[in-house]
Every structure is written in structure tokens, then in C-alpha cells.
Amino acid sequence: MTSRKRVAVLISGRGSNMTALIEAARADGYPAEIALVVSNVPGAGGLEKAASEGIETTTVDHRGRGSRQAFEEELDRTIRAKDIDLICLAGFMRILTPWFIERWHDRILNIHPALLPSFKGLDTHARALAEGCLIHGATVHFVRSEMDAGPIIVQGAVPVMDGDDAVTLAARVLTVEHKIYPQALALVASERTSVEGMRVRTGVEGSNDFRSLIVPEN
């Protein structure tokens, strides 16, 4: 196996998916280490959690920068100074510009609480319920300039129950997010993925057995 990839996790809040990645990276043989956590919001809850795990943290406040480009230039400098290989967005509430995305092409992962390409954007759980979906879930994908678009790495699905509202459905999907984000990062960090257009390939026979998960209700 290649050496462990150094990962920066970008957050804006409590970072529950960040925590899932940190826990996964503790395992022997996991191909990535969480080397840096960056927030654009001073005092974000996830910073304290990451620091308690011995992970370096910093804040690059997007306010007062004058432009999105100036913010992203500082963010880019901060990340590159730590020899980072991959970036994971985990509740990072900023839309990145094409300039930043291209500098990290196929090295930025994001998790979205829906089965893309359906339900891009916000309020995904309420929209899935309004459309009468029987299956809902989450997607980990490589980031592209279009919001919530990019080659899909892993997806996980859960059933929509008769009594669900947006809150209960969101909680069920969150458990899936915490499973599939570490799996997706492991695939990318172990250099088992290649991108062909909008398809992510692993070259492993039967890989879709674990890249598309159906998680039944307990």
C-alpha cells in the first residue's frame, strides 16, 4: 500500500462527518490521515473536537477578505503549507470557485444528503418526501464547478418510512453518511479510483457491491 494520504477537512459547523473520518482514520491500515481541519467560521464546534483528537486546526475566516478569490487564495496557501494530498468537505458552507476547484482537480471530495443527481441543493429530505420517494440517501462525489455535481464515488440509501418527516429522515440518512464517507475516502486515498468523464472506476470486479449500499431500517 502507498503511504497514507494527508487529508484536510473543511468545516463550517460541528463536523459530524469530520468525526466519522477521524474515527475511521484511527484504524490500522486505513490509507489516509486527517492532518488538518480548517473552518471558515471562528469557533465552529468541530474545531474543538478535532483539537481534542490531537489534529491541527485553523480558521480562515471568509469575512473581511474583500472577495471570494482572496479568501480562497488564503485557504489554498493554508492547505498547501501542510503538504495536503486530499480535501474533504464536511458541512463546509461555502461554494468554491472554479479557480480553487481546478487547483485541486479530482482531489476534493464532498458528501451530499441525497442520491445525486436527484435533489441537488438544500432541503433535500423535505423535497424527497414531497416527491413521494421510497428510497433516499447520500452521495460522496468529486467536486466540480457546478454545485452538487461531479463523478460519484459511493452512494448509500435508506428506505423512506410511512411516518417519516424531514427530521426523522435526515437522522436516518446521517447514519449512512457516516458510513460511506470513510469508505469513499479510503478508495481515493488508496489510489484505487480513476475518473472517466462522470464515471468513477476502481478496476475491482464487483466493486459496486460496496459502492452502492442499501441500509435497511433496524
Automatic annotation (TrEMBL):
Family affiliation: Belongs to the GART family.
Record's catalysed reaction(s): N(1)-(5-phospho-beta-D-ribosyl)glycinamide + (6R)-10-formyltetrahydrofolate = N(2)-formyl-N(1)-(5-phospho-beta-D-ribosyl)glycinamide + (6S)-5,6,7,8-tetrahydrofolate + H(+)
Pathway assigned in UniProt: Purine metabolism; IMP biosynthesis via de novo pathway; N(2)-formyl-N(1)-(5-phospho-D-ribosyl)glycinamide from N(1)-(5-phospho-D-ribosyl)glycinamide (10-formyl THF route): step 1/1
Short name of one Pfam family: Formyl_trans_N
Gene Ontology terms describing biological process: 'de novo' IMP biosynthetic process
Residues where (6R)-10-formyltetrahydrofolate binds: R68, M93, R94, I95, L96, N110
Keywords, alphabetical: Purine biosynthesis, Transferase
Alphabetical list of InterPro entries matching this protein: Formyl_transf_N (IPR002376), Formyl_transf_N_sf (IPR036477), GART (IPR004607)
Catalytic activity, EC: 2.1.2.2
CDD domains, A to Z: FMT_core_GART
Domain Formyl transferase N-terminal: 5-185
Residues annotated as catalytic: H112 (proton donor)
Gene Ontology terms, MF aspect: phosphoribosylglycinamide formyltransferase activity
One GO term describing the cellular component: cytosol
Job of this protein: Catalyzes the transfer of a formyl group from 10-formyltetrahydrofolate to 5-phospho-ribosyl-glycinamide (GAR), producing 5-phospho-ribosyl-N-formylglycinamide (FGAR) and tetrahydrofolate.
Binding-site residues, N(1)-(5-phospho-beta-D-ribosyl)glycinamide: G15, S16, N17
Protein name stated in the entry: Phosphoribosylglycinamide formyltransferase
Record-annotated site: Raises pKa of active site His: D148
